[in-house]
Amino acid sequence: MQGAEAMTDTRDTADIGLIGLGTMGGNLALNIAETGHRIAVWNRTAARTRAFLAEADDLAPNIVPCAQLAEFVGAIARPRRIILMVPAGQAVDDQIAALRPLVDAGDVIVDAGNSDWQDTQRRAAALALAGVEFLGLGVSGGAEGARHGPSMMAGGSDRAWAALAPVLQVIAARFAHDPCVAHLGPDGAGHYVKMVHNGIEYADMQMIAEIYGLMRDGMGQGAVTIGAAFARWNAGPLASYLIEITAEVAHAIDAATGQPLIDLIVDQAGQKGTGRWTVIDAQTRAAPLPAVEAAVMARVLSGEAEARLAGAARFGGAIAAVDLSETELESALFAGKILAYSQGFSLLATASRDETWALPLPRIAQIWRAGCIIRSALLDDMANALNESPDSRLAFAPAFAAHLAAHVPSLRRVVGAAVAAGVPVPALAANLGYFDMIRQARGTANLIQAQRDRFGEHGFARADRPGQTGLHGPWAKPG
Ligand code: 6PG
């Protein structure tokens, strides 16, 4: 067996193991080591493992570096707990396949990457046949979060959760004294919730970018002025990680040119896919998710740089000035944020019913209060509202309905001004459309139904004949 000598040195000396020492994996391993756990680590390239150990400084005594996978598995006390932090997709399957002959029944493999929740279900079912437990763990908070306290969303069996909870609860971010980690349901439930978290993240980021666009293009403000407004907003009801870092990035000056760095960054957004997955999933469940849909569309369109250049040449990119106050912009963003989160929680409620997961929505809001990218002052109030009105949409819970009544007028003014001036605000506008539809007692789908019946005899129901469905025309020709 490879690495047999090293195995005699390290056997059973670690409490837990981690595979994949990229930015997230390395930081998570240091976080675990710092809490007093001995952690075995293995990376596909041994050079990275050596570099990691060298960077670990005074945490090195708690780290058991392994050159071979078999040595790594042997180093972990049983039942083994093995965390994978490798890129989502095939790499996870490959790593599980490599571990499979080395692990024993009762061991727990944790996938802490941004995996597709259905892949997690499939992997959990396959490993269960061999008695190996699998925990799908959504981890949010970027590199800083992984190092000093992420928010974590777990899906898996009670046994898998019981094995990992003592470690996860000490490495998690804390809101007051409450660790931001929870067991949310079986197999794919944790990765599902993380996916929806990322969808909300996309919507939040897009709405912030739209407000930035209004300030930059409609109001002629420079990056530093814009950053100062975001910094002020971060001291109010919008207080959140994304507002905080927006202020920071807007203030950064490029040393080489003396210009705001943000002005030099190419205006094409990347995406690894979780936002798109959220939209696709919402569509398959017929759950409305307009803000995330708009955000994904905007990222895709941002990448079509040639088309945008051609469009600017063909139609002119001229934008008229907008006259909006800082308070109106703040208030519009606040309303948009509530609507986006409300849509996200409604999607979670729908998925929970579809999949019979019984997702604990208030607890999800609680574990998003610290550590994760969408952490925000609002989430504590959202947790309370979801507790008090578990069956209602967040937007209808008394505290949030009152916020919307107070702030939607600003959203309307801001979207109206943007539309009139030609500044694109697709996510804010989508949220306004959603709001106006969810309070429209008499909608316009009667016309859709009539059209469907006219061209395809699809049938309709009549308001004056309750209980009768599948009714048809006759339809008339005009004049
Ligand atoms: C988090 C982030 C994290 C990652 C995103 C970025 O919660 O810590 O969401 O998971 O930064 O996957 O996603 P995009 O590359 O799709 O923007």
Class by SSE composition: alpha/beta
Q: Please trace the helix and strand order, writing H or E for each element.
A: HEHEHEHEHEHEHEHEEEHHHHHHHHHHHH
CATH topology of the largest domain: N-(1-d-carboxylethyl)-l-norvaline Dehydrogenase, domain 2
> What is the topology, as strand order, of the major beta sheet?
3-2-1-4-5-6-7-10
- Termini separation comes to 89 Å
Radius of gyration: 25 Å
Count of spatially separate domains: 2
Nearest-integer average pLDDT: 96
Secondary structure: number of strands: 10
CATH architecture of the largest domain, by name, is Orthogonal Bundle
CATH class annotation of the largest domain: Mainly Alpha
Portion of residues in beta strands equals: 5-15%
What is bound: which ligands? 6-phosphogluconic acid
Residue runs with pLDDT of under 50 for 5 or more positions: 1-8
Q: Share of helix among residues?
A: 55-70%
Shape: globular
Tell me the name of the CATH homologous superfamily of the largest domain: N-(1-d-carboxylethyl)-l-norvaline Dehydrogenase, domain 2
Number of helices: 20
The biggest beta sheet, please?
Answer: 8 strands, mixed
